[in-house]
Every structure is written in structure tokens, then in C-alpha cells.
Design a protein that fits this description.
- By secondary structure, the protein is α+β, with helices and mostly antiparallel strands.
- The protein has a single domain, classed as 2-Layer Sandwich (STM4215-like), CATH 3.30.2000.10.
- Helix content is 17%, strand content 53%.
- The chain has 2 helices and 5 strands; from the N terminus they run H-E-E-E-H-E-E.
- Strands 1-2-3-5-4 form a 5-stranded mixed beta sheet.
- The longest helix has 15 residues, at 64-78.
Length: 116
């Protein structure tokens, strides 16, 4: 269902867009994404040919400001596509790396309505 998402987002991070998780020792900034669920839309005749996706996009960077700037760029870029979507949730996380340093992450949950 997420075919094309990496291609849409790759101009923001020089193709450092990954499904599910970052590689070991990633070059930042980077983006990860995952499909959390896919709910098929039904009507009285059965399947309506549409699906609502819950997609999580993670924006990773060395600083909190850079992670937020990347998240803002993701929102702006997705606003230019023809897909119907809603930013449902957004929050910050900090990932420790060996307990000494770490990387910042902004998590965005989108609900995307698209044809199946």
C-alpha cells in the first residue's frame, strides 16, 4: 500500500528513506515509515474500492530543531500530493545511542484515504 512513499519523500533526505527502521550507524537526517493498518472501506454492496491507511513517518536528525524542520518539510511535501490525508498525531522522541549521545525523532501519524 505504501508503494511510492519513499520516492515522494526521498528528495528531502537524499534518498535516506527506509521502511520500518534505520540502518546501523545511519547518515542523518533520515526518514523511516511504516504502515500500521489498512481499513478497507465498505458499503452496502461490499468493498467500495477505497482504503484508509494509518501510516507512521519518523523524521530523524542530530538536533531537535533539525528533526522538526524535516517534519515540517514532510508535511509541506505531502500537502502537494493529490492523496487525501490528515496528520492525526505528532510527537517528539529522543533515542539514546550507547547512553552518551543520541538522535532526535519527530513521529507523525497520518490517516491516508486512497483507491485500492
Amino acid at each position: 500500500m505504501l508503494i511510492g512513499l519513499a520516492e515522494i519523500l526521498s528528495p528531502l533526505v537524499s534518498s535516506r528513506v527506509y521502511p520500518l527502521q534505520l540502518p546501523q550507524k545511519p547518515m542523518l537526517p533520515a526518514i523511516t515509515y511504516q504502515q500500521v493498518s489498512a481499513v478497507r472501506v465498505r458499503n452496502l454492496r461490499g468493498r467500495a474500492g477505497k482504503v484508509r491507511l494509518w501510516v507512521t513517518i519518523n523524521c530523524w536528525a542530530d538536533t531537535q530543531l533539525a528533526a522538526h524542520n524535516l517534519a515540517d518539510s514532510v508535511k509541506a511535501l505531502l500537502d502537494t500530493t493529490d492523496t487525501e490525508r490528515v496528520l492525526d498525531n505528532e510527537f517528539d522522541l529522543f533515542e539514546f545511542d550507547a547512553g552518551v549521545s543520541g538522535i532526535y525523532r519527530v513521529v507523525q501519524d497520518y490517516i491516508i484515504a486512497t483507491a485500492e
